[in-house]
Records
---
Amino acid sequence: MSASRYDHPILRPTATSPARQTDAMPVPTVPRRRSHSWRTTIAVVMAAAIVCLAALLYATGGAPFGPTVSFDGLSSRYAMLIDADSGEVIQSRDADARMYPASLTKVMTAVVVLDHAEALDDVVEAPADIFPALWEQNASMAGLQPGESATVEDMLYGLMLPSGADCAIALARYVAGDVEAFVELMNRTAAALGMSGTHFTNPTGLHDADHYSTARDMTTLFAHAMRNGTFRTIAGSPSHTMSSASLHDGDLTVDSTVFEELGTPLVAGGWIVAGKTGYTPEAGLCLATAARFGGRTYVLVTAGAPGDHETSQADADDARYVYGQIPGL
């Protein structure tokens, strides 16, 4: 899937009016000699300007001139904001430092499932044997019962909205046969996207010292995922009823942790259209969101905010703080 591009307009020459005719004899002009020293001075000044520009862009992470977004008030340790339509980096904070992505991992899980699932209405079972380990690790769950089945589509809602680890493992086994083979697909996809600072060991985001990423890589991933219409619909839904869940008589409803935290998707001059939360004690609060302002889409990833989902909304506060500055761009 490729994002649409706009061609730059071609500037065409326009016809000029014929020169005005006069009877006066033209006054001859003598061409002014250019000074070699003047040309040298211009070249030196331009070279110095290029060096200064390169240094400034390096220092700002590629941020453009003019009004920009400040990250000074962020609680999160790591962050990146991009214009998803152009790929331009607007602002960043320690975007290449290694961090733990927690359940932002499930964005990659969803991407791999959407790339490899035969059909969204395929039925997937959540085997009973996956539950004890998830319960022991206090993993977030969608609410499936051991041995319950649901369609791939409903499982994706259970994966993304309540961050269900039960759905993550069930989908991984459905796609690849076992979790290890699915993780190989995750890492292969990360490499294809240029996520050089990322390594996955599981599809859930549960803590593992060898399971890591960067804010830059997670921004790349979320922007890529948002190009998929099914992903956009799922990640942008406040709630969903998993009507195919076999042991719930069609009444298993899952709610988005993103929109629960935000309260409202509206932010100054725009609105948040999709997102994914994440948390482990080692990762802190993490949040990936996409927002629309004036016909453009922006992607923000923050990670390492203090607190947890029971005691803090620092990640949601950071999103409101950053997006509140977008109308000034």
Note: Confidence is low (pLDDT under 50) at residues 1-36, 56-67.
---
Amino acid sequence: MLGKPEWFTRRKWGGWGLCPATKEGWVYLAVFVAVIFATQFMFTDEKSRMLALGVVAAVLILDTVDIMFRMKKDERETLHEALAERNALWVIITVLAVGIGYQTAVSIAQTGTATIDPVIIIAIVAGLIAKAATNYYLDKKD
């Protein structure tokens, strides 16, 4: 789309996404930040500002995903990324499970009934479905 994969490297130490590796990558990032700020001054009403911000954010997200899919990775980088993603997922699942236990204990202590935020349950079930679908696809592919 707009950016080129050679302008960026995979973000290894601070989350997911891309990190500028060349001056073009930094210019790309600066232009998007400038456009985001500009949308806040170009429009007078809140609805137009939010719509413009949403459009710019959507373009940035789609372009970032496009760049990430076009980035070339060797086998070692792919393995390292897979291990890092797996470990991150285990931590997320552990925190969600502890959160369910905490919410249940607090709600029982306060009201005598167990109430749990359904978003946490949905997140865990969605992760389970994604894993099952991926395993099914990979088994059928081989």
Note: The mean pLDDT is 87.
